[in-house]
Amino acid sequence: MKLDELLENVSVVGAAGKMGSGIAVLIAQEVAKLKIKNPDKTYKVNLIDVNEQGMKGLRQYIKTQMTKVAEKSIVGLRSAYESREDLVENGEVIDAFVDEALGVLNFGTNFELAKNSKVVFEAIIENEELKVKVLKELKELCPEDALFFTNTSSIPIGFLDKEAGLQGRIIGYHFYNPPIVQKLLELISADDTNKEFKDIANELGKLLGKKLVPANDISGFIGNGHFIRDGLYAISEVNRLKEEYSFSGAIYIMNRISQDFLIRPMGIFQLIDYVGVDVFQCILRVMNKHLRDETLHSELIDKLMEKNIRGGQRADGSQKDGFLKYERNRPTGVYDTGKGEYVALERLKERLDSKIGNPPAGFSPWRKLLIEPNKADLLSTYFSNLRSADSFGTELARNYLARSKEIGERLVKDGVTNSADDVNAVLTNGFFWLYGPINDYI
Predict the structure, then answer these.
(1) Which helix (H) or strand (E) holds 330?
(2) Alpha carbon distance 15, 114 (integer Å)
(3) 188 has which bridge partners?
C-alpha cells in the first residue's frame, strides 16, 4: 500500500506525553497537507491518551505548533492554496492551514478510536510490560494489516513483536526529544519485519524531514547504548572521587568536565536530569534484562529514586530537580546524598575550580563553537592541546574521552550498528555533540 493511503487514518497512542505530542504535530501537519491536495478524501489523525488532564491542553499545543509550522512554510502553503481566491493575506493562509490540521484530529481516551487505523504510533512510557499490553489491545482493534511504529528507546523490537503477536508489523521509530525540533530518527527493524514496511518507514521519515540512522535490534540501540554507558562511567568516577571531594563535589567535577572540557551542550548529570533519573533507571533495567549484563546497573540511581529524586520536565517544560537543582532551568545546586539536600553551586565552584583548572588553550564553549564555520579545525587544535596539558581536569577529560570512544567502538563490534559513522551521526544529531565519540582526538 502507498504511504499516502496509509496516512488516511492514523492513530497516536500516548499523544499527551512529551514524545507523543510532538509525534502528533509531525503527523498532523503532513496529513493536513494531504488533505489540501485531496479535498474530497477523508483523513483522520486520532490522538489517544488515558491521561485526561494531559489531553485538555493537547489541542491548544497542536494549534500553537501548527501556527509556527505554517509561518515557516508560508511560501509552499500559498502555492498549495493557489486555487483559493478567498485567501489573500498570509494570515488568512496560515489560519486556513491550522483549521485544516485541526479538522483532521480526533481526541479521546479510549483505544476504540484507533480501530480503523492503518498506521499506529505508540509513544507511551518506556515500560515493556505496559507496551506489550497496549500493543496487544491495539492489534485486536486495528485492521489485520495495520502497521505499528513504536517510539521505544531501548526495548528490542523482536521482543515486542513476539510478545504482542504482531507478525513483523512493528518497527522501532525512536524520535529524539523534542520530536518537532530534533532531526534524528533511529530506525530499528527486527528479523521478521516486513521489507515493504521498512521501505514505508524510510519514506515516512524522509517526508517528516528526519535524518534516518539505522540501528540493529539490540537493546538500547545506538543512542541509549552510548548514553547509558557514558553516564555509568561518570557515576563510577564520582564513586572514585567522592571520598576526597565529597559526593556533591564529585558530581560537580564530572559534570563540569563533561560539559566544559569535552565541549558538550550540557554536563552528563544535567543530561541525565533532562532525560529523567527515572527514565535512566528504566532503560538500565531493560538493557540489563535483554543483554544479561550485570554492569548495567547503578546503586546510586536506585538510591536517588528511593528519595524520589527523578528529574525530567514539568508540563510547562521547566526542569525538575535531579542530580542538580534548577531555577529557571539553570543549575544552581548539586545534591548531597549524605545531607539529603542541595549544596549551592557557587560554593562548589569556589572550592573546586582551582583544583580542576581551566580547559587548555583553544577552548571555546559549545554554544560559540556551534556557529563557527571552521569548528572542525578549532576542535582539532583544542584536543591536541588537551592531550599534552597537565592538570587534574585535563587528566579526567582525557580518560572520559577515551572511555566514550571505547563505548562507541564497542557498539560497532557488538553489532548494535554497522559503522562508526552511524554512531557519530546519532551523537552529533541526537545529542547535539560537535563531534562523534569515535574520533582521533585521543
Answers:
(1) strand 330-336
(2) 12
(3) 172, 215
**All three cell numbers of 48:** 489517544
Instruction: Please list the residues that pair with 121 across neighbouring strands.
Output: 12, 149
**Inter-residue contact 325 to 319 (CB < 8 Å):** no
- Kind and range of the H or E element at 386? helix 375-388
Closest listed residue to residue 362, CA positions, set 376, 388, 375, 381: 381
What is the structure's pLDDT at 1? 72
pLDDT in tens, 119-158: 999 999 999 999 999 999 999 999 999 999 999 999 999 9
Torsion of CA 73, 75, 80, 84, to 10 degrees: 120
The x, y and z cell numbers of residue 123, run together, are 509513544
Q: Measured between alpha carbons, how far is 424 from 326 in angstroms, rounded to an integer?
A: 30
Length of the chain: 442
Residue among 262, 257, 261, 225 nearest 241 (CA): 257
DSSP string, 111-148: GGGGTT-SEEEE---S-HHHHHHHHHHHHHHS-TT-EE
Biggest alpha carbon–alpha carbon distance for the chain: 74
Q: Print the SS3 string covering 255-321.
A: HHHHHHHCCCCCCHHHHHHHHCHHHHHHHHHHHHHHHCCCCCCCHHHHHHHHCCCCCCECCCCCECC
Mean pLDDT of 242-249: 97
Residue extents of the structural domains in the chain: 3-215, 223-430
Query: Is the distance from CB of 180 to CB of 65 less than 8 angstroms?
Result: yes
Q: 3-215 has which CATH code?
A: 3.40.50.720
Indicate the pairing of strand 119-122 with strand 184-188: unpaired
Over the stretch 174-208, which tens digit does the pLDDT of each residue have? 999 899 999 999 999 999 998 999 999 999 999 99
Separation of alpha carbons 37 and 32, rounded Å: 9
CATH number among 1.10.1740.10, 3.40.50.1970, 3.40.190.10, 1.10.1040.10, domain 223-430: 1.10.1040.10
pTM of the full structure? 0.94
